[in-house]
Amino acid sequence: MALDRRQFMKQAAVSSALAAAGAVFPGISFGDWNKLTNNSGIVSWQKSPCRFCGTGCGILVGVSGGRAVAVKGDPNCSVNKGLCCMKGYHSVQSLYAKDRLTKAKVRKNGQMVEVPIQEALDLVASKLKQTIESHGKDSVAIYGSGQWTIPDGYVASKLFKGCLGTNNVEANARLCMASAVTGFMTTFGIDEPMGCYEDMDHANVFITWGNNMAEMHPVLFSRMIANRKRRSNVRIIDFATRFTRTSQAADMSILFKPQTDLAVANAICYEIIRNDWVNWNFVNEHVSFHKGKTNIGYGTEDHFAFQDKGENISFAEYKQFLEDYTPEKVEKISGVPAKDIKYLAALYGDPSQKVTSFWCMGMNQHTRGTWINNLVYNIHLLVGKISTPGNSPFSLTGQPSACGTVREVGTLTHKLPHGVVMNEHDREMAARIWDVPVTNIDPKPTYHTVEMFRALDRGDIRFIWIQVTNPMVTMPNLRRYRNGAQKDDRFVVVSDVYPTPTTDVADVILPAAMWIEQEGLFGNSERRTQHFAQIVDPPGDAMSDTWQIIEVARRLGFDKQFPWSEENYIEKIWEEYRLFHAGPKHEMAPYKVLRERSGVQWPFVNGKETRWRFNPKHDPACTNGKDFDFYGKKDNRAWIWARPYEPAAESPDDEYNFWLNTGRVIEHWHTGSMTRRIPVLHNAVPSAYVELNPEDAAELGVVNGEMVRIISRRGQIIIPAQINGRGVPPRGMVFVPFFDESYLVNEVTLDAFCPISKQPDYKKCAVRLEKV
């Protein structure tokens, strides 16, 4: 086919870029991209949400010759308005590395052997059945993630909870979003943010609580920066434990000692009350005060159980509780100058300022994660800055469907798609929709994620199916859980797209279709459901995780519950799932609407999205006739909690004298199994490192690039030093990103967790350092 000049230039640019990429990182098979059908250079574009993080950017994927060859931002998506970050722009390259899993593998005589995928699925079904017959229904489990599509998580829950009768269903969002959920539930009685990204266009004060948005949510951060550039009165305050790129871009950076955000939040509330900045009309009409148990432990022992029940207190009692948190007292605990605490309180307390607070893992991966979520809500509730444009406490997510698949579908041990297993009405509704006896659905939760892997170690769980996640890199106190998975009488099934340390421990590996190689739906941080069509074909025998589960369910005799054909199963699953959320509090958009649009926010009522919940001007679920209706609670009020400061589960001492903090970098996502196979991202940051404060480095005699041994009570790693890089920790702290499987920092971290949410604390444990 003849090419015109424009097509020739495009084709030449693509060929040149791919050749360069292959030279940079030889493990990537981009050469095949040059062999486009008809060599026409013609590109067709289709919409999709981005595969990475929980922002939910809309992208347009360019396809030529059956390959995804390009990405650009979707201008019709209100999330990103045509902009992407570096991961988004290069996302489609993650489909085409040479070591892509395309055939099923089964362990035979200690070796992994390729087999037809139908044979592998037969083995999975038979092992699942045998394990239940020998050890009972709770000896089997499935572990997914916030990268599961909504249909993936829905059929997993239906099979395990509805058909097999076990609540052993968990997702890795337990490791990143569980405290956000329990924070919402304890304060509002209902999950997910009341605001939306549009708040960034209205607010003039942004406070990021332990959240490096410039790297973790760069597109959202760019919207904040654009707002500040457009309007002269916009301020960004970075409140964090280390100096980051967010700190550099902020108008003010305030550093606090790990765990002491609890004390600072209470001090802000103290100042708001002392200065009479309380919005009394709002508080008197819409708020009640409560206290819960204290000294609740850290969940480090097995079979940890804890229930938090609120006890009503008066405003006077709450005010008295705050007397221990004057700015001057809290300065001694937190290291934050009293004047800075007063400044933060003045921003929240000034009625002329619209304030949006953002947070993510810094607050959620916290042994008091639920409490610190509650305390930031307390601040907004005291001043009435909530559920209106620009006034928003906003918990961000880290995975593309942590909200849609985990929080909305309910892929946690205690959850159902519309409620909880403990509630009889919720069980009856699920049984009716799933067409199973209600007695199938166990009213008792089993294991949250950390306890699930402890149960696998103990032998209470003998069979586990892991999909779309890499726990042999991400679990805290990793060595214990890897050893447990490798015990002889455990059977591990892993569905994934590339080899990982988790596939290394598998007995069966199932090749999975990736993202745009299947049809699916994600749900992002702002309650936005996003549909994507299958754009390209999966390689070899790879199939979607949804269809893998359906295949196994049918082998187990559940054809009636999984009757769908491959041609329309996503649409049928979605319309069945919508039945759980009918009504103005959580109505989901119809399949046809989702196919047409670049995302739709729920509740979607009478053809209209809900931007701000609990506000009758925007939310059709409000029925109390007042200015706000916090309908999640029986008293129709939001709850302010008296939550104290308590120290971390493990703090530095004479033997282990440094804090260790872990997290991400902008170039890589989670364990790097996809982004490290994208040449430009891999080349930008090819390996992990440990950030050191320059003065600490000088004392150790370490310079950039030299190796440092990090030692905790659980393990150690040897890793190169980075000094005065993009991030600079304060003295006495080090930071390690966790994307690099060559440096398994989670062998060092502690598996303590928030006793309410059961979410582990990856942000602080005690270590010592040695120069190697």
TrEMBL record:
<comment type="subunit">
    <text>Component of the nitrate reductase NapAB complex composed of NapA and NapB.</text>
</comment>
<dbReference type="Pfam" id="PF04879">
    <property type="entry name" value="Molybdop_Fe4S4"/>
</dbReference>
<feature type="binding site">
    <location>
        <position position="545"/>
    </location>
    <ligand>
        <name>Mo-bis(molybdopterin guanine dinucleotide)</name>
    </ligand>
</feature>
<dbReference type="GO" id="GO:0016020">
    <property type="term" value="C:membrane"/>
</dbReference>
<keyword id="KW-0249">Electron transport</keyword>
<feature type="binding site">
    <location>
        <position position="176"/>
    </location>
    <ligand>
        <name>Mo-bis(molybdopterin guanine dinucleotide)</name>
    </ligand>
</feature>
<keyword id="KW-0560">Oxidoreductase</keyword>
<dbReference type="GO" id="GO:0009325">
    <property type="term" value="C:nitrate reductase complex"/>
</dbReference>
<protein>
    <recommendedName>
        <fullName>Nitrate reductase</fullName>
        <ecNumber>1.9.6.1</ecNumber>
    </recommendedName>
</protein>
<feature type="binding site">
    <location>
        <begin position="662"/>
        <end position="671"/>
    </location>
    <ligand>
        <name>Mo-bis(molybdopterin guanine dinucleotide)</name>
    </ligand>
</feature>
<dbReference type="GO" id="GO:0051539">
    <property type="term" value="F:4 iron, 4 sulfur cluster binding"/>
</dbReference>
<feature type="binding site">
    <location>
        <begin position="259"/>
        <end position="261"/>
    </location>
    <ligand>
        <name>Mo-bis(molybdopterin guanine dinucleotide)</name>
    </ligand>
</feature>
<dbReference type="InterPro" id="IPR006963">
    <property type="entry name" value="Mopterin_OxRdtase_4Fe-4S_dom"/>
</dbReference>
<dbReference type="InterPro" id="IPR050123">
    <property type="entry name" value="Prok_molybdopt-oxidoreductase"/>
</dbReference>
<feature type="binding site">
    <location>
        <position position="738"/>
    </location>
    <ligand>
        <name>substrate</name>
    </ligand>
</feature>
<dbReference type="GO" id="GO:0045333">
    <property type="term" value="P:cellular respiration"/>
</dbReference>
<keyword id="KW-0732">Signal</keyword>
<feature type="binding site">
    <location>
        <position position="57"/>
    </location>
    <ligand>
        <name>[4Fe-4S] cluster</name>
    </ligand>
</feature>
<comment type="function">
    <text>Catalytic subunit of the periplasmic nitrate reductase complex NapAB. Receives electrons from NapB and catalyzes the reduction of nitrate to nitrite.</text>
</comment>
<feature type="binding site">
    <location>
        <position position="147"/>
    </location>
    <ligand>
        <name>Mo-bis(molybdopterin guanine dinucleotide)</name>
    </ligand>
</feature>
<keyword id="KW-0574">Periplasm</keyword>
<feature type="binding site">
    <location>
        <position position="361"/>
    </location>
    <ligand>
        <name>Mo-bis(molybdopterin guanine dinucleotide)</name>
    </ligand>
</feature>
<dbReference type="GO" id="GO:0005576">
    <property type="term" value="C:extracellular region"/>
</dbReference>
<dbReference type="GO" id="GO:0005506">
    <property type="term" value="F:iron ion binding"/>
</dbReference>
<dbReference type="InterPro" id="IPR009010">
    <property type="entry name" value="Asp_de-COase-like_dom_sf"/>
</dbReference>
<feature type="binding site">
    <location>
        <begin position="495"/>
        <end position="496"/>
    </location>
    <ligand>
        <name>Mo-bis(molybdopterin guanine dinucleotide)</name>
    </ligand>
</feature>
<dbReference type="InterPro" id="IPR041957">
    <property type="entry name" value="CT_Nitrate-R-NapA-like"/>
</dbReference>
<dbReference type="InterPro" id="IPR006657">
    <property type="entry name" value="MoPterin_dinucl-bd_dom"/>
</dbReference>
<feature type="binding site">
    <location>
        <position position="53"/>
    </location>
    <ligand>
        <name>[4Fe-4S] cluster</name>
    </ligand>
</feature>
<feature type="binding site">
    <location>
        <position position="746"/>
    </location>
    <ligand>
        <name>Mo-bis(molybdopterin guanine dinucleotide)</name>
    </ligand>
</feature>
<feature type="binding site">
    <location>
        <position position="50"/>
    </location>
    <ligand>
        <name>[4Fe-4S] cluster</name>
    </ligand>
</feature>
<comment type="similarity">
    <text>Belongs to the prokaryotic molybdopterin-containing oxidoreductase family. NasA/NapA/NarB subfamily.</text>
</comment>
<keyword id="KW-0004">4Fe-4S</keyword>
<feature type="binding site">
    <location>
        <position position="763"/>
    </location>
    <ligand>
        <name>Mo-bis(molybdopterin guanine dinucleotide)</name>
    </ligand>
</feature>
<feature type="domain" description="4Fe-4S Mo/W bis-MGD-type">
    <location>
        <begin position="43"/>
        <end position="99"/>
    </location>
</feature>
<dbReference type="Pfam" id="PF00384">
    <property type="entry name" value="Molybdopterin"/>
</dbReference>
<comment type="subunit">
    <text>Heterodimer of a large and a small subunit.</text>
</comment>
<dbReference type="InterPro" id="IPR019546">
    <property type="entry name" value="TAT_signal_bac_arc"/>
</dbReference>
<keyword id="KW-0500">Molybdenum</keyword>
<dbReference type="GO" id="GO:0009055">
    <property type="term" value="F:electron transfer activity"/>
</dbReference>
<feature type="binding site">
    <location>
        <position position="172"/>
    </location>
    <ligand>
        <name>Mo-bis(molybdopterin guanine dinucleotide)</name>
    </ligand>
</feature>
<keyword id="KW-0408">Iron</keyword>
